[in-house]
Amino acid sequence: MPIDLNRFIATFFDEAQEHLESIEERAMALGASGGDTETLNAIFRAAHSIKGGSGTFGFTQLSEATHEMETLFDDLRKGRGVADESTVRLLLDACDAFKAHLARLKGGERGLDPAMAEVRRQLAGYRAREKAEASVIPSAGPTEESFFGDDEGPAALADAASPKATAYGLFDEAPAAPAAPAKNEKYGLFESDGPVEHNRRKGDQSSIRVSVAKIDRIVNLVGELVIAQAMMQQASASIAKDEQLSHSLATLDRNTRDLQQAVMSIRMMPMEFVFSRFPRLVYDVSAKLGKKVHLRTQGHDTELDKELIELLIDPLTHVVRNAIDHGIESPEERAAAGKPEQGAVFMRATHRGGSVIIEVSDDGRGLDRERILAKARELAMPVNEGWTDAEAWGLIFEAGFSTAREVTSLSGRGVGMDVVRRNIASLGGSVSVASAKGEGTTITIQVPLTLAVLDGMIVCVGDEQYIVPLEFVAEAFKPAAGDIRNVVGQPSLVAVRGEHLPIVKLDEVVQLHASLGDRSQHDAGAPSPSRPEPICLVVEVDNRRAALLVDQLVGQQQLVVKSLDTNLHSVPGVAGATILGDGRVALILDVSAVTRSSVARNLARTAA
Fold this sequence. Notes:
By secondary structure, the chain is α+β, with helices and mostly antiparallel strands. It is built from 19 helices and 19 strands. It has a 6-stranded mixed sheet. Strands 11-15-16-14-13-12 form a 6-stranded mixed sheet. A 5-stranded mixed sheet has the order 17-9-10-19-18.
C-alpha cells in the first residue's frame, strides 16, 4: 500500500523553518567563534536535514541548493577554506531565499524559482573561489571530488569566474573578496544568559506536534466549563446546601481551576522564540548603518502565551530598530565620547505577578528633552515646560512624531513608536520610557501572561457592570467632598496623598449619562438624588495616573476573556467581553484607550 506523503508535508515545512532559524543563529556566531568545528558541523547537519526532507517530497530546487550549502560547510569543517564575513553574508542571504521558496511551496506553487537558481549558483561560485584560493597553498590532504554532474562541472567553474557568480549578496554584485580576518574578529554578535537550544527538537522524544487550532478548541471549551462552574456556584448560593453539596462544589471549583491552568500552560512558549529573531535583525540593521552593535538577551525561559508572543514581534522589532538607529552612536561618535566603539542592546524578560515585563535597553546617546519639546512645538502639539521627563518622553509615542533630521528606509516618517503603543495597548499592556542623556534609553513593555484569562475588578455604573483589568488598578477609595477640585475650563481633579489626578467619569465614557441623568449638572463628586456616592479607582497606564469615577465596586474575580472581533467591529475603549456568574455579559475596558479619549475630550472642551 503506497504511503501518502502529503500527510507529512506540514511537518516538513515546520521542521525546515526551525532548521533555517538554527542556521541563521549559528551563522552569526561564525565570526565570533572563528568558525569552530561545532558551529560548522551544526550548520552542515541542518542543511543536510533540509536537503533530505525536500528530496523526499520532490522539491528539487531546494534539495539542490541545500546540497551546495551542505558541501560548502563540509569543505570548511575539513579545513578547506575559512569562514569569514562574506561567508556569513552569503549564508544569511541564502536563508532568506530558502524561506521565500518555502513560502511559495507552502502556498502550492511548484514552478521554477529564479531566486533559488541564483542562490545555488552563488553557493557553487563561492565554493569554487574557496578551492581556488586553497590550491595556492599545498595541501597534504586529498582533494574533495566535485559534487556537480559531469555536464555541470566546467559550467559551474566558468560561472564562478564571472562577476555574477562572485556576488555574495543575493542579487547585488559584491566588491573584491576581503582578506581573511583574524580568528577573533566579530561580525554579528549575540550573547544570551544561558545555553540556547539551537535545535528545538533535540531530546524532545516524549513530545508531539499538535495543531494550534486543536489547542485553541480545548482552551475555549475549558473557558466555557469555568463559566458554567461560576454559574453553578452562584445559583447554589440561593438554595439550602448540605455539607456534601458544599464539598462537591468546592472540589469542582478547585479541579476546574487546575484544569484551566494546565490547559493554559500548553499555550505557553518561552521568550526564546522571540529573542531568537533579533540577532539577525541587529546584524542586518547595524551593518546597513555602519555601526557596531552587541546584542545581549536574558530571560529565555520566561513563558508567555503563544498568541501574545506572535503579536509582540512587530512592536519589539520597532523598538530594537529604533535603539540601533536613534540610540546607538556611530563608532566615531562613541570613541569621541569616551565609549567603546561597539554599542550594546540588551533585551530582558521577567515575570512580575500576572504579567511579563520586557525591557529593551541601549547604551547610546539617550533622549534629548529639549529637542523633543522643540519638535513637538513645531508640530503644534501641546507642550508644558513643567512636565516631568516621563511625560516628555510620552511625546515620542504620538503619531507623526520623529526627531530624525532626514527620512531614510529605517526612520524619519514618525511611524513606529505610535504603532508600538497602539499594539501593546491592544494586548492589554503598557509601555514606559526611561532615559538619561548620553547614557542610553530603556523601553519597558508590560503585557499580561495570556489573553484568554484575566484578573479583573468588576465595577458598576448605574445598572451596568464593567471589568477593569486588575493590573492597571493601583488603589480604590471613596473621596471626601473636599478632595475634588473643579477648575473652570479644566478637567476635574481629585487629591490623592498630595497628588492631583484627572477624573475620568466612566458614565461619560460608556455614554450612559443620558439615561441616568446628566452628572455634569452636579459637582463631579456629589451624587445625584438617584446615584450612590462615587468611588475613585486609581488606574496607571503609560506612566500616567488617573482616577476612574464609578458608582460601585462589586469585587475582584478571575474571568474568561471573549473576543468581540469575530462577530462585531472593533469598539473604542473596549478590549473584550466576559460572561459573569449570573450569565450576564460584561465588557472589559481598554484602560489605556479610555484614559486617552477622556484627556482628548477634556482638551477639546478647554479649547472650545
